Amino acid sequence: MPRIVLIASSLAAAALLCGCGQPETPAPKAAPHSTMPAAAAPAAPPPPAAADARRAIVCFGDSITAGFGLDAGQSFPDLLQQDLDRGGLPYRVVNLGVSGDTTQDGLARVFMALSEKPVVVVLELGGNDGLRGIPLSITQANLGQAIEQFQGAGSLVVLAGMTLPPNYGPAFIRQFEGLYKSLAAKYKVTLIPSLLEGVGAHDELMQRDGIHPNAAGARQVEARVMKSLMPLLK
Q: Is residue 89 part of a domain?
């Protein structure tokens, strides 16, 4: 009997287990409602700055144009802009002076000046050619090509004549100065016979190197350029 009872008890327990289903998988809980604010839309980029619609005057030269040794705002192109603004003249001055440039260097970047569509170009190059002893024929040819390109694009040209220190000898200096006069006559451009007239060789107006004008000298150079520009701007 005990064996029969044990078997019966086991069968009863098995039946009880079979009658019980697997426990139901609990339903997923709903995600709690987020209280975080929605991401803000990205800010619109600022509108592009309006292009300067004023007509351009390009000062195209070497270290004298670039303002070598001067503080910002003291180069003659900077002073020229200030002078034009005071007079209410609607022009923007673009300074394309590069220290050390020869006429060959300048000729290679004429396209930069032309991209500004200048009304007038103040062409100030040749001084470094003379100081380096570059043949005058090369200097004159390079300046001539630059003038032709500017005039071909419809720009008026103001040619700034240069001179050399006395140690180069009077004969060479006369020939050097004369090439500017020849170019002005050939191409019928406005000539400033000597950009540094009244400034060069005056210690109070020049930097210590004796080549570049100081701030006071630059003001005199600007006045000379402005005088030559005014008839063209009218």
A: yes
Q: Which amino acid is at 40?
A: A
CB-based contact 150:113 (threshold 8 Å): yes
What token pair was written down for 189?
A: 């451009």
Full DSSP string of 160-229? E-----GGG-HHHHHHHHHHHHHHHHHHT-EEES-TTTTTTT-GGGB-TTSSSB-HHHHHHHHHHHHHHH
The CATH number assigned to the domain holding 165 equals: 3.40.50.1110
Q: Which domain holds residue 123?
A: 55-233
Of the listed ranges 38-47, 53-62, 158-167, 186-195, the least confidently predicted one is: 38-47
Q: How confident is the model over 45-70, as a mean pLDDT?
A: 89
Task: Please check whether residue 35 lies inside any domain of the structure.
Answer: no
In eight-state DSSP terms, residue 30 is: P
Tokens of 167: 């140690």
Residues marked as catalytic: 63, 209, 212
24: pLDDT strictly greater than 60: no
**177: CB partners within 8 A, 6+ apart:** 161, 162, 163, 193, 194
The end-to-end CA distance of the chain, in Å, is 135
**Residue 10 is assigned to a structural domain of this protein:** no
Residue-wise pLDDT for 74-114, tens only, equals 999 999 999 999 999 999 999 999 999 999 999 999 999 99
